[in-house]
Amino acid sequence: MQDFPLYFQLGWRHILDWQGYDHILFVMVLCGTYMLTDWKKVLILITAFTIGHSITLALSVFKIITVNTPLIEFLIPVTIMVTAAANILGKRQKPKGQKFKYTMTLFFGLIHGLGFSNYLKSLLGKSSSITAELFAFNIGLEFGQILIVIATLILSFILIWMVKIKRWDWNFFLSSAIFGISFVMAAERFPALLG
Description:
InterPro entries: Put_HupE_UreJ (IPR032809). It is built from seven helices and no strands. By secondary structure, the protein is mainly alpha-helical. It has one domain (4-194). The radius of gyration is 17 Å and the shape is globular. The termini are far apart.
């Protein structure tokens, strides 16, 4: 476990990397409709995402499943678009709607995990002992993810409670902006899917 700090750092730096901001956008749009008082719902959502991406990250790194990189790189912004659209079109979350959102987040986590695996596999090279590195990288991802959640919830609190922006207006602005960015990302990645 002497490499734990290294892979932990690589994990949080990877998710917070502005050059690969798709994961940042996903976490932001996922929790952007919630307030600090909704922390339990956010915790369940983030846990569902974590479970999803942990499963496929491990399966891919251990070569149990193979990754079609262009397909995954295209699907990641699609997951962001779908989540943003659900925020815009959804009314107040009813219990059944919330359960669907948890399931959707778990499924989307599976897709994002395959995206993380490409990066991690390139770091591991031909390393024979990868379990500890995988664990450390995953913990690092979670640390970075929690930082994004905290920043998003604090921003929501400031804008809604201090600046007095209506909660729906903030949700609509954030979700629409992220939908637009992810639409452009998906459009840019589509040709690679065909080629």
